[in-house]
Design brief:
The complex is a heterodimer of chains A (about 230) and B (about 230). Chain A is an alpha+beta fold and about 230 residues long. Helix content of chain A is about 40%, strand content about 35%. Chain A has 5 helices and 9 strands. Chain A has helices at about 5-35, 75-90, 130-135, 140-145, 165-190, and strands at about 40-55, 55-65, 100-105, 115-125, 150, 155-160, 190-200, 205-210, 215-229. Chain B folds into 3 domains: about 1-40; about 40-55 and about 160-229, Protein of unknown function (DUF541), domain 1 (Translation Initiation Factor IF3, 2-Layer Sandwich); about 55-160, Protein of unknown function (DUF541), domain 2 (Alpha-Beta Plaits, 2-Layer Sandwich). Chain B contains 4 helices and 9 strands. The chains are: A alpha+beta (about 230), B alpha+beta (about 230). At the A-B interface, helix 1, strand 1, helix 4, strand 5 and helix 5 of A face helix 1, helix 2, strand 4, strand 5 and helix 4 of B. Strand 1 of chain A pairs parallel with strand 7 of chain B.
Amino acid sequence: MSNLVKLLLGLIVAVLIISVSYLIKPILFEVSNKLMESERFVTVRGVAEREVMANHILFELKVSTLVDDIINESSKYEQNCQKAQAFMLAKGIGAQDIAMRSLEVFTNRRKDIPKNLVTCNLVVSTSKVLKARELLSSLDSLVKEGISVKVYEYQIAYGYTKLNDIKPSMVEEANKNAKDAALVFAKHSNATLGKIKQARQGLFSMQDGRRPELIKVRVVTQVDYYLKN
Amino acid sequence: MRSLTIIISAIILGAAILVSVNTLRIESNVITGRFIDSGRVVTVKGLAEKEVLADRVYLPLEFSWVDEDLKKAAQILDEHQQKIIAFIKDKGILASDIKADMPRIYEVTYDGKTRYNVTYRLVLDSTKIKEVKALIDNLSSLVKEGIFLQTTTYGINFKYTKLNDIKPQMIEEATANAREVALKFAQDSGSSLGKIKNASQGQFSITNGSTPEVKIVRIVSTVQYYLND
């Protein structure tokens, strides 16, 4: 090989080496650009709330009767207890949903009034929530017959067992609300919304609704969206 | 002549490598500079606050009677209830907004007698705020008819249910307020405000206002802007 050719070869390799650096330059720039872009994001929250009807109710109805003699006047309190049960059946509660838990006696210790308060506890566990509420709103008709009844609101338990059915659509709704909030941000800052960087779904919560038999189901999603431009 | 060619080639290649590395060095400096600049930020908070009127009110009304005869107490309370309901409807509140809640009965023994202390309860759940307020102010007029209505102040509950309608506008307002603060910052430090780097929406809160039926809706957004020069 002649010396001139060798020199030429050397020059070509030199040019190649310099060219490579100029090719790498924009690649480095592009990488740094992308990394800096990934630092831009907006954090938003989306809420989905639904008010659902409980599909199960559990409560205790106490029927109290005053008697002088617990044994000989037993028909008095038994009758009142029966009437209360009949009332509930008439309101549409199934017989299998009513159970008598216990009979309680409170004796007044004062000697001049030998009065005993006998209470029969009826436990109702039913899926007929609206019928049960109807029943509870019309207890005054038992009182009019002279039957003393007690139910305490804080002792009524409501259940909702269909949570899994509404979870997917609620998560979807929460995500959509989050995206809407992010779009407001982006629009206002003259940027465009990119893809999701990070998303976190909160826990589902059940709280009291507008009426006792309603349950408010709630979920909050927190999402980070990339911002472009 | 052979060794001279080799020396010249080596010098040329060496120079090429040096130029190449230098090009990359210069580019790396530029990129590092950009990263350092992207760390120049100003972080501000933007507040949006709105006073809103409650659009729903929840009001429990209780009235009692004490008698030895339970049937008589129930009858009297029933009469009272009719009068109260008529009074409420007369004030412009819908009948469907009034619901009967469960009665409370206590057997109280003293003075050698056992008496029944019976309390009936009506619950108002209405969107007619003005009418309910007028009702509360005029309850004392029922005293003339022997009806003593008990409404505990903690029992009245004013609610604002339209949060979702004002959310977008409030987020926008909070973002705008944040930008104003950031602009001031930038001006004061002799820089110009760049694009948004990060933003965090914050959480909406509803608190009671100066009066119970006024609510304050509040959101604080945190925004981070690039500082340019």
